[in-house]
Amino acid sequence: MTVTQREIWAGRILLSLLMAFTILPFISIFLTALHPSGTVPDGLAWPEQPQWGNFVEAFRVAHMPTLLRSSTLIVLAVVPLALTIATMAGYAIGHLRIPGARVLLILFVFGLTLPLPGIIVPIYVLERAIGIYNTRLAIVLPLIALYMPFAVFWMRAHFVSMPMELSEAARVDGANAWQLFWRIHVPLARAPLTSLGILLSIWTWNQFLLALVLVEDPNRRTMAGALGAFQGHYATDIPLLCAGTILILLPTLILFIIFQRHIIVALLQGAIKG
């Protein structure tokens, strides 16, 4: 396939526009965070006296150390459980092909169409009824359930491509069902498991709506839920809100830089197998 110079330049221009479209909001947030607290900055103007102390103030007002610990606990509770359940379900549907596997897959795919704002009220009522409202379980349990459609679909796409001859050879060597799953297929699924784990960790860390609606105590929310600390009944401190947003984004940005190769692989796998 031959690519002409015109197509190359068209691609570069399109990518440059997309990059500018993506970066501009972050530049705007950063510049706004440098304005004096309590003001309403305009556009992308650089402040006359940058207020670098806004980041320290945002860190203090939002109780970031406490929320950092809370977010870490929530991620550690959600991601391993979600990975375990999704791996077993994906293996049963994609490789074992249990009776009703096709119906189960359709039900999981249907779950992908459910919008979170549309089910947040039933979740709120249910959690108040069973007594876990305003606890970290109020975030952990719904997140695991909400991740299942995507996670099971993701792992099923891996297991369905594994050759059946591999399992038959292991059974001839005396492996039972559990050994076949744990010693043969789980090690071979390390790449999709790692990619899925990174995605779930980032989504859990950035969870805002569930943390804000289902947990009243600000110290039990996620880092993203800390943004509510900058919103008052009558006014919102926009520079501090933007400074807090940047502080919350930093762990995710560092995680992306460290694991960018796995994240890109994850996105490519999803595009190819999905």
N- to C-terminal distance? 25 Å
Elements, N to C (H/E): HHHHHHHHHHHH
Radius of gyration: 23 Å
Secondary structure class reads mainly alpha
> Main sheet?
none
Poorly predicted spans? none
Number of strands: 0
- Overall, the morphology is globular
Mean pLDDT: 84
Number of helices: 12
**Strand-residue proportion:** under 5%
The helicity comes to: over 70%
Care to give the gist of this entry?
72% of the residues lie in helices and 0% in strands. It has 274 residues and is mainly α.
Textual characterization of the structure:
There is one protein chain. The protein is mainly alpha-helical and 274 residues long. It is built from twelve helices and no strands. Helix 1 (5-33) packs across helix 11 (238-258). The mean pLDDT is 84.
Characteristics of this structure?
mainly alpha; 274 residues
Q: What is the topological layout?
A:
Elements: H1 5-33, H2 53-61, H3 64-96, H4 101-111, H5 116-130, H6 137-159, H7 164-172, H8 177-188, H9 190-205, H10 209-214, H11 238-258, H12 260-273
Helix pairs in contact: 1-11, 2-11, 3-6, 3-9, 4-6, 6-9, 9-12
